[in-house]
Amino acid sequence: MPASRQNIVLVGFMGTGKSSIGRLIAGRLGFVFVDTDALVVERAGREIAELFATEGEEHFREMETAVLESLTHLERRVIATGGGIVLRERNLELMRELGLVVRLTASEDVIYERVARNTKRPLLQTENPRATLSALLAAREPMYAAAAQWTLDTTTMAHGAAAEAVIAEARRAFAWQGTK
What we know:
five-stranded parallel sheet, alpha/beta, about 55% helix
């Protein structure tokens, strides 16, 4: 079961709804919403695509880990993580330390529809973004599954319904009573 920290950590591939659904969960619970990608951008003073281009993916991954480490003392957070955060074993440990790790999934077609027009996704700036997405999803999906304590498929769910489902699981996992 989750660590003693009462946070909700959202993991999953880009386009599964981590940020949108996370904001709703935080608002409904009165928690603070945290986006690890946004914190990396804030600390680096540069967009992720620029970080990838100038410093490389490894530097970005180091910054992701540093951001997670900086959150481990906090409570009452909904933390949306970047899609590649599961690539480092240390990050899996940190996420479990942070609280309940919830994996959001969606079908490959829906993910592609959601992310295809977003030019801020450096890993999809390839000659064939659909093939890249498919390969990345196949490679990462086992890591998301290994990281998570609970999974929710958002393919056909409205964000509000998905948020309520995650809140219900958090209530159960943390044995929250009443309206926490």
